[in-house]
Specification:
The chain is of the alpha/beta class. It is built from 17 helices and eight strands. The protein has two domains: 238 residues, Aldolase class I (TIM Barrel, Alpha-Beta Barrel), CATH 3.20.20; 71 residues, Up-down Bundle (Four Helix Bundle (Hemerythrin (Met), subunit A)). The protein is 42% helix and 12% strand. α10 links the parallel β7 and β8. The longest helix has 14 residues. The chain has an eight-stranded parallel beta barrel.
C-alpha cells in the first residue's frame, strides 16, 4: 500500500517534466530522478473515476525518491475531483494538477481535458472545490485555445476566470488543440507554436506563475523562455533524450556536485531494478524508458538494440541491463573513458 510521507517537498524551481500518457509512469519517474533531483515530475493523467473506483495502489503507487511529484487528474465534476485531491494529498503528492489540455477522443467523451477550455466557469468550480479540500497547490495545465477559438482572447478569458477561483499557477502548452480532424499525436506537432501568447500572459498577469510547455528541446531553449516566463516544462525531449536533464540541478536548483555520467545513472538503477524484479515487474517495463539515455553517444544503437531484443525475454534481469551497458563501453574510445 502507499502511505503518505508527511513531508513537504520544495516545488520552487523553473524546470519540470510534463505528464505524458504511457510514458511518465513510476518506473520512468524513478529513472529520471537518477538524472535530476530537482525537476518537478508529474504522473500520467489519472481520471477521477479511476482514482475513486479503480486499483488505487496500482495507479498511484510511487517511490519516495520521486519527490517533488505532482499528480495530474482528469475530470470535470467538482466534488469527485475534490475527493481525489484529498486522496492524493493523503498519499503525499506535492501538487494536484488538472488536465485541461489533452485532446484525445477518450478524454473528450468524458467531458474533460482540452474540451474544458470551452467551459472556464466549470474549471473554476473544479479548482475551487479542490483548493477547499487540500493544502497543497492546485494547478491547471491547458492549451492556448481549441478549435475555432481566437487564441489570445480565449486564453486570457480562461485564465482570468480560473485565476478568480484561486489558481495561481498555469502550465500552458503553447499550441491550440483541434478536437476534430487531428489525432493526439498530430495535436502535439501540427498546430503552430505560439510562445508569444504565453509570454503575453505573464506580462499581463505578473501575479500568476506561468509555465511554458511545447517545443522545448534543450536547457538552452529553456533559458531563452525563462527570460519571459516563470518556468519551463519539457515533454518529449526529456523522455526521448533524458540526459538533457543532467545539468538541470546545477543550472536551476543550486546543486554544486557534477551531474552523474550516463554509466553512473544505469548503476544507480540497479537496486531499484532488483527490487522490482523480485516483486514481479518485467525488466522491459523499466528499461523501455531508458532507451534514449545514450542518444548521440558512441554505442547508443547497441544499447538500444540489446535492451529492445533481450529485456522482454523470460528470465531477463539485472545482468541483461549490465550487458547492454557493456556494449556501450566497448564502443567508447579509451580516451573518452
Amino acid at each position: 500500500m502507499i502511505e503518505g510521507t508527511g513531508q513537504t517537498h520544495r516545488l520552487s524551481g523553473p524546470l519540470s517534466v510534463a505528464p505524458m500518457m504511457e510514458w511518465t509512469d513510476r518506473h520512468c519517474r524513478y529513472f529520471l530522478r537518477r538524472i535530476s533531483r530537482g525537476c518537478l515530475l508529474y504522473t500520467e493523467m489519472v481520471t477521477a473515476a479511476a482514482v475513486l473506483r479503480g486499483d488505487r495502489d496500482r495507479l498511484l503507487r510511487y517511490h519516495p525518491d520521486e519527490h517533488p511529484l505532482a499528480i495530474q487528474l482528469g475530470g470535470a465534476e467538482p466534488l469527485a475531483l475534490a475527493e481525489c485531491a484529498r486522496i492524493a494529498e493523503s498519499l503525499g503528492f506535492d501538487e494536484i494538477n488538472l488536465n485541461v489540455g489533452c485532446p484525445s477522443d477518450r478524454v473528450q467523451s468524458g467531458r474533460f481535458g482540452a474540451c474544458l477550455m470551452a467551459e472556464p466557469a466549470l474549471v473554476a468550480r473544479c479548482v475551487e472545490a479542490m483548493r477547499g479540500a487540500v493544502s497543497v497547490p492546485v494547478t491547471v495545465k491547458s492549451r492556448i485555445g481549441i478549435d475555432d477559438q481566437e487564441e489570445w482572447p480565449a486564453l486570457r478569458a480562461f485564465v482570468e476566470t480560473v485565476a478568480a477561483a484561486g489558481c495561481t499557477r498555469f502550465i500552458v502548452h503553447a499550441r491550440k488543440a483541434w478536437l476534430t480532424g487531428l489525432s493526439p499525436k498530430e495535436n502535439r506537432e501540427v498546430p503552430p507554436l505560439r510562445h508569444d501568447l504565453v509570454y503575453r500572459l505573464k506580462e499581463e498577469r505578473p501575479d500568476l506563475t506561468v509555465v511554458l510547455n511545447g517545443g522545448v528541446t534543450s536547457l538552452e531553449d529553456a533559458d531563452r523562455h525563462l527570460g519571459h516566463v516563470d518556468g519551463v516544462m519539457l515533454g518529449r525531449a526529456a523522455y526521448q533524450t533524458p540526459y538533457v536533464l543532467a545539468e538541470a540541478d546545477r543550472r536551476y536548483f543550486g546543486a554544486r556536485e557534477a551531474a552523474p555520467d550516463r554509466h553512473a545513472v544505469v548503476e544507480a538503477m540497479a537496486g531499484y531494478v532488483e527490487a522490482e524484479l523480485a516483486a514481479g515487474t518485467p525488466l522491459a517495463a523499466m528499461t523501455r524508458h531508458m532507451l534514449g539515455l545514450f542518444q548521440g553517444m558512441p554505442g547508443a544503437r547497441a544499447w538500444r538494440r540489446h535492451l529492445s531484443e533481450q529485456a522482454h525475454r523470460p528470465g531477463a534481469g539485472l545482468a541483461t541491463l549490465r550487458d547492454a551497458l557493456a556494449h556501450v563501453r566497448q564502443r567508447i574510445p579509451a580516451a573518452a573513458e
